[in-house]
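B., you asked whether I could sanity-check this one before it goes into the benchmark set. Here's the sequence:
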Amino acid sequence: MRSDEESVNVLQLVTTPRPFFRQQVEVLEQSGVSSTVVRVPPADGRRLGHEYAVFYGQILSKLATGTYDLVHANFGLTLPFALAQPIRPVVVSLWGTDVFGEYGWVTDRFVRWTDAVIVMSEEMNDAVDVEANVIPHGIDFDLFEPMPRMEARREVGWDADLKHVLFPYDPDRHVKNFPRAERIVTEVAGQVDEDVAIQPVYNIPHERVPLYINAADAFLMTSKWEGSPNAIREALACNLPIVSTDVGDVAERLNSVSYSHVCESDQELVNALVSVLAAGERSDGRQSGNISSLTNMRERILDVYESAGVQCPDIDQYARSENQ
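And here's what the prediction gave me:
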């Protein structure tokens, strides 16, 4: 195994350290990449200039007291601060809203000055005006795996006699379009024999998310835009049928997956969800080959680090030492 002196030191900048970001850091550290995470301070409401001023001061402090080989900006709003130091290579990972949302202009203005760019989908790749690496977040297949529906339902306290439609987002997140999801489920409820409930699930420990996925009969996504939604890949890994709007790379992820549909109109969403609930079957998403592992994601990110001029640890050497 490599010594500490041989590890790569990365300053990871992030707005909000979501579970997929924490997994990214963990799997990189398993390969000898030492990460120091600096996040934008939380705010009671919308972040304003003060939080970002504090964030920038924290970055300068870390850079002054530590030796870093690379700065990895995660989410476009962290990019200007990563580029404010001219010495270390900068890699940026764009998540979706930072390309298609209200702050896309920040990404547009600064992305060309980076050493390498990671995006989640081909749609995002087409939208950014630079050469990018398409690397969707990987899935922990040991955590996200199928389990008996009724067992999961007992664990989360859902009624065993209802049809449950999962909406794994905060309803207040405008981009997720919960009012449309409610409208679809209300119409579906009038066309099936059993009672149907929409289940918004958010702000729960990540390790419990598979329970809710497995407890559901279907996953409904009505987002206005996405990059490469993690919830879709997690649902695929648990074989949960999915009905979704055509956003991000969802069509690619659901290609040839049974009991799963990509739709445009409300009527298409209603018809697809009625069909899925009537069938009562699980999908074959886990076996589809449309989702990749954390290991695959790690290897591809390390390749990007190498392209930015950073000598990365020998993955094979780490794999051999872990197996000894």
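One thing to flag: The two ends are 11 Å apart (CA to CA). Otherwise nothing jumped out at me.
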